[in-house]
Amino acid sequence: MARHLETEILIQAPPERVWRVLTDFSAYPDWNPFIESLEGSAEAGTYLKLCLRTPDGKRHRFRPVVLQATPYRRLRWLGRVGVPGLFDGEHDFELIAEGAGTLFRQSETFQGFLVPLLWGQVGAATRAGFMAMNAALKARAEMGA
What we know:
Blueprint: E1 2-11, H1 15-23, H2 28-31, E2 35-39, E3 49-53, E4 59-62, E5 65-70, E6 74-81, E7 87-98, E8 101-111, H3 115-143
């Protein structure tokens, strides 16, 4: 069974600026309330070291693989809990030019055996984390506008 979450926000900054903030992983502890730390590079095929904190204060660590890194447009990765098919999450950041600004869309598709069992714990907390990150990204990207 699969579940999908999607959030979006309009940022009054061009995609190039939003991309720079999004891919400056070393600065995440300074502004990102959801992804506390992210190490690695935005290059397809590489692995990242990620620590996120959900709004309820729980920390989760993952080693996702970057599936796509198209500058100024899209960053996608796949993270897993345990073995493939148990609890997999394909995370997607999409940047869409909207006039002088950027529509930023953050989504994740969850698949695996444990998804129906854990969705009650994961769904609402993840959506809240996405929304908090979106607002913080907007504030950070617009600071330089």
